[in-house]
Design goal:
This protein is of the alpha/beta class. Helix content is about 65%, strand content about 10%.
Length: about 300
């Protein structure tokens, strides 16, 4: 049974082992949110571009601690920036392609493999627990963590198929251990359950990325609530449209012509006409979404 989640700003994490298909599903979810006019932030996996990634795969004992520390700090910074952005937002969705909750799995695995010493592991965990505490204190835990799961042989095939040199060259035992940590060992699952509001495991073997996206969106998008939101959006943008129209009329007054030259007035009118065009497009999009919901109900 999922815990009750207020329909306000929503934080959604797509998690799972490397190669399970997180980024593809994230892309599709963001497209769907755009299609139904829900404002969203897409926070992509940053380690793919990290200078530490290749170094780590080449020499894990030398680079595991520095790489893991860098990655968790980067993800936490990403989280902080997003939370600051959300302060003035309402009904805004954030999609995480991996989250710093995942870093616990990687750090524990490298400690067990002795890629990270016990002393450095203790130092790392002190910092990591502080990060979790800040998230809990702010009551900004993820509303949903969707843990994507596929058989190991499928994951290995996908890793080989996407052809990233550092991943292909990595020892297959590394991928097996990571897989076990995500899906087999119970204390890692408990870590997710403890630090998010709802954990949902999705078996993806017999599902297309589109079907996975539909499954997730049926959970995170409340159509009735979104319909209400679209009505509010229409009223909001109709007000802005009227304000822009009033601003255009002001430029036609004798008072405005006396205070400003014709070039400046023309530029301002052009800007306001452009804003009217944008507002009108937003109004029409909201109307189309409402119509779509109404047709679905009928």
């Amino acid at each position: 049974m999922s815990k009750e989640t207020p329909h306000n700003n929503m934080r959604i994490v797509i998690s799972g082992t490397v190669g399970v298909g997180k980024s593809t599903v994230c892309d599709l979810i963001v497209q769907e949110l755009d299609n139904v006019n829900i404002e969203n932030n897409y926070l992509k996996e940053e380690t793919v571009e990290s200078v530490f990634l290749k170094l780590f795969y080449e020499s894990p004992k030398e680079w595991a601690y520095l790489a893991q520390l860098n990655w968790v700090v980067k993800r936490f910074e990403q989280w902080l920036v997003n939370e600051e952005f959300l302060k003035d937002k309402k009904n805004h969705y954030t999609i995480y392609d991996r989250h710093f909750l995942d870093d616990y799995i990687f750090a524990e695995m490298h400690t067990a493999k002795e890629n990270i010493s016990s002393y450095l592991s203790l130092s790392y965990q002190v910092q990591y627990q502080e990060i979790l505490k800040k998230m809990a204190d702010k009551d900004k835990q993820p509303d949903y963590v969707f843990l994507l799961k596929a058989p190991l042989d499928v994951v290995l095939k996908r890793l080989k198929g996407r052809g990233r040199e550092s991943e292909v060259d990595a020892n297959i035992e590394y991928w097996k251990e990571l897989y076990d940590n995500y899906y087999i060992k119970p204390h890692f699952r408990h870590h997710f359950e403890k630090n998010c509001k709802n954990l949902i495991v999705i078996e993806t073997e017999n599902l297309t990325p589109e079907e996975i996206k539909n499954k997730i969106c049926s959970i995170i998008i409340n159509e009735k609530e979104n319909c209400k939101r679209q009505v509010e959006q229409i009223a909001h943008y109709e007000g802005l449209f009227e304000d822009a129209q009033k601003e255009i009329k002001k430029t036609e007054t004798e008072e405005a012509k006396a205070e400003h030259n014709e070039y400046d007035l023309t530029c301002y009118r052009t800007d306001m006409e452009h804003m009217k065009y944008i507002y009108n497009r937003k109004i029409e999009k909201s109307k189309r979404i409402i119509k779509k919901y109404e047709e679905k109900d009928n």
